[in-house]
């Protein structure tokens, strides 16, 4: 468990994700102004540090390393103690939507800010005497609620590949730590000599692993490629109409991206800030004549690839054999069942779908009358933010926490390497190894000191 | 009812915990009685004849800095000293000494008997008397009662002790002593929760029947070493230990007879420690190891008994006879005392406060193996703290509670009262998160002041501490002030003294950080004052490891806010609705004294700590 310094600088996205045309990132702490100055270029070239409180400054956020412009923003400067937290605060207003917010936040973290814990701004406000006693209960409620939510997100995404990778790295570290510790605590026992060169090679391997994870986090599909989404259903059920509805919903941005397969086109749809990458829109679009020919076979492969499946059924008609096959395919996929044509007389046996796909939410829409689209969008958002979407390759939505912890762990390993290189005694090298091990444990919620001692006794025969 | 006497504090047991508790309480000025089952077994070492080692040696140094006795007594009586881990960093170097067991005991007995305010008595305490949740006295097996304000339980392995050798078991304490059976029942009656642990010891063999030519000699260090900051011994006669190994024949005998091992046949119920497994456990758990090392250690200068370290066993005596003979140098061995296992009652330390006082029984303290630890040093350290805190209680002062960042003693007690223990607890340096700050060489700098505050540090000790501290600061300031430039003269001077040239201007203090430069070399080149090795060591370590030390100090400071945040004694965790049920249950059971301690309870999450922080703030504003 790691506790943070009281006055370090924290940052977080302050507006609800995926809502609103404007997004706000709040930065609070003694160094917040200098920190934002590192990535912010005011239109008039003056640094925020030279400006007075309560200024709204227009400018651009760019990555100081690549010089890439991330977004146009307005920074609001609030100097201590006249801010919500009674600390120096900068609020960065940028365009809404998931990408600019996340990129700006990652930049801040890269340049020294720490990701705020759930409810931490309010906690600081309270501890700095900003809000009164009656609000304290509310603060505790927030911390609990947000922690529960982020825990859900975290655990939801920590199955499979990602967490097992972390565990492997931790196990390797634990082995090294235990070996060093055994040699330190039991110098007269027969603990094998440790070959520091070998240890360095192994640390190097672990560092490569961590770096691969960091870069995969950076290019994670959700950030740069969107959530792979499949719209499946029998011909003429309304797939292309649904796609169009989604495309034409308020702030939709459409981009044509040549797909990975020869004949398929994928499209980005920004649904309230969530980038959906819809598979084979070409196939869906060719509907009018060849129309909606995506048969069950293709549907199968799409469902396998997709992070999110929208399964479309025709509410006005009785179930067909194709419908049953699709139901079979999505049964375990946690799909969203969309029943189209709610404006017509309903003939579909919905109870059968309900029974077969008990985990799936069922939504009624009418692509003609535009009914139910809003509910569908809400459902998609819910799935993404509540962590119900499981990714195929172990990418993760909630990756800023994890990215930060991975980077710190990498840094500790780097320190350990330097120490070994300088012939610093092992008991000091272990400090860095342990820090890395603990940081990785933070990601998977598993930091128990006793593990090291268990490992020592299980691996080494030690006794009087 | 016969009241035989009245004391401020009564100590039950005069082992390593008991003597420290008794001496500390008496030295602070409390009228104290130290009770023992047998006057001839004060400060008995029933197991290995040694004191110290990694983390354990640290404990002895700390205890010494606070004004305890173990370090002084070991320096007076030990017959071999070695500094371990000398090739490793300064934080894990540790002193270990071979004791002359009987001389150690005599010397400690003498110290206790001559201590003002301390009465040493041979008697068996059978009952702890409690009225309205408060200790009022103890009752002896012969019926008489001693009244008192505080009791320190230091009953070692004697509580309902049971000896096991092969198929034979009998009630008793170590080496043929009586067990304290009724006391165990009395503890249960006053509401103390007990656990059952097990430990063991190897055979003692006759030195005359060993062939040392088949073993490797293990001499002590040439340089004389001392545990106590008050000891000035510079020379000492030393006795060697001997190294030999088990082999496949030994293992075969053990394997063939494994069904007769008490741990296999179900005789042993108690939980044994993983770090000192019996030889039969070793060959089962590590079947691939083709040999295990054994140290043959003298039990003293006036005896032929030798301790076979590494060979702890509770196998039947005939098996012990057989397998010992397979070991090189022991072909003709004669056993003087066989190895045995011992099971005993101890209390669950989660019932204790960090002062080592029981949470529900006022005036009842416990220390040492009766708290589920193992080792003389762990016992002594707790005994000292229990003695100090019982005395503080009698005098109406705040208890002395050492933080994890201040002392191994703090780590030890915090672990016990916060996490509890599932096996006899042994101190290890890897248990201390601020290891680099808790060095054995700076124990006096860390703790002498605290010992002084509770009235345990004598004027002589305090003066010595102040002088050393003054010298360290003086020389450091001198080194930091003295700047040298890369002039030709300076570089000539450096070269003359075998030092590397400098390229930019630097202070002597920064120069000291370089790997190849020590204070002595600098002193020669720049005519610096001549200072003692101890002072040199402090200055060099602080300079060389400055970066790491700063890192750890920052970590400490980050935790400090939580450590200093006291939890109100009457806090009702069930009323804090946002805590998770698991946390509420743990917090109510352990009742941490600080937010820092709360954070270390397994199952209490960082979010819970945030909630507690807000709750405390709210609580504080309400009560102001």
Explain what this protein looks like in three dimensions.
With 464 residues, chain A is an alpha/beta fold. Chain A has three domains: 10-116, Probable tRNA modification gtpase trme, domain 1 (Gyrase A, domain 2, 2-Layer Sandwich), CATH 3.30.1360; 161-219 and 398-459, tRNA modification GTPase MnmE domain 2 (Four Helix Bundle (Hemerythrin (Met), subunit A), Up-down Bundle); 222-385, Rossmann fold. In chain A, 46% of the residues lie in helices and 17% in strands. Chain A has helices at residues 32-39, 98-110, 120-127, 134-157, 161-185, 196-218, 221-225, 239-248, 281-285, 296-305, 321-330, 350-356, 373-385, 399-421, 426-443, 450-459; strands at 10-13, 22-28, 40-42, 56-62, 69-78, 89-95, 114-115, 227-233, 254-258, 265-271, 274-278, 308-314, 336-340, 361-364. In chain A, the strands form two sheets. Chain A has a seven-stranded mixed beta sheet. In chain A, strands 9-10-11-8-12-13-14 form a seven-stranded mixed beta sheet, sandwiched between helices. Chain B has four domains: 3-46 and 106-202 and 344-440, 3-Layer(bba) Sandwich (FAD/NAD(P)-binding domain); 204-340, Elongation Factor Tu (Ef-tu), domain 3; 470-549, tRNA uridine 5-carboxymethylaminomethyl modification enzyme MnmG/GidA (Arc Repressor Mutant, subunit A, Orthogonal Bundle), CATH 1.10.10.1800; 565-623, GidA associated domain, C-terminal subdomain (DNA polymerase, domain 1). In chain B, the strands form five sheets. In chain B, strands 1, 2, 6, 7, 8, 9 and 20 form a seven-stranded mixed beta sheet that branches. In chain B, strands 14-15-16-17-13-18 form a six-stranded antiparallel beta sheet, with no helix packed on it. Chain B is globular. The relative contact order of chain B is 0.13. Chain A: It is found in: Cytoplasm. Chain A: It is an enzyme of class 3 (hydrolase). Chain A: Belongs to the TRAFAC class TrmE-Era-EngA-EngB-Septin-like GTPase superfamily. TrmE GTPase family. Chain A: Pfam families: MMR_HSR1, MnmE_helical, TrmE_N.
